[in-house]
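Re: Re: ligand-bound prediction request (bumping)

Still looking for help on this. To restate: I need the protein modeled with uracil bound, output as structure tokens. Inputs repeated here so nobody has to scroll up.
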Amino acid sequence: MPTLKQLAVETLTHMVEGGQQRLAVDDEARGILRQWMLDSRRGNQAPLPAPASESGGEMSVEQKLDYLRQRAATWKAARALGTLRDTMVFAVGNPRARLMLVGEAPGYEEERQGEPFVGPAGQLLTRILKAMGLQRSEVYISNVCKFRPSMGENQGTANRPPSPEELAACKPLIMAEIRAITPACIVCLGGSSAKGLLDTHQGVNALRGQWLECQGIPVRVTYHPSYLLRNEALGARRALWEDMLCVMERLGMPVSTKQQNYFR
Ligand code: URA
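Reply:
Sorry for the wait, this slipped through. Here it is.
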């Protein structure tokens, strides 16, 4: 039997999904919601926007992600904007990953293949992960926006970053994904990802070099790989690598002298 919390979250999720952003609540409801929020901030598992499994027990991470994937495909708040393309690109990787990487939105190649980060920026990301000693299959890779932002009929292979409205519409999905995965650490790839996850208007330069937090999980913000493709400067590459070394340290991964000295 679903708990009161699960039922409430399910109902609220339907409302958010439909684009509703405000709800009048009485003092008692406000007190209960506040307590749930405080519990989740203290690091307790926040409620998932999903019903209990059919057997009534806790859903597995895989079940939670399947459920979210289905919901995302017809996510009303995103569809209602009319500015995002139809094909949903959800996420890829290990549901039990300790490291979660979050980009901005699928581009041409991602939409074509139905997988995040498979175009030129994705290939660079794969090389960065390899340099860290990680395979793509060991981490979880997702985007704050699950649909390729539209640029009209003659878009071709062009891409654009998601607007604040598009980020806000998709935000409940990535938040629920984070709660399902509960990674040890999140890397925001680029400014849109940081804006989508961290309620900030600051750019990457201001946010880099510190540990931030999303739903109690440590977050490191770094440059988007596509920025490195556009900007050949050694400084940007070095900065991204330094961010990744901090992430490796945080995850307790061994760092070899070679890795330490890549850009020295
Ligand atoms: N850029 C992103 O931010 N995400 C992708 O999936 C691909 C490119």
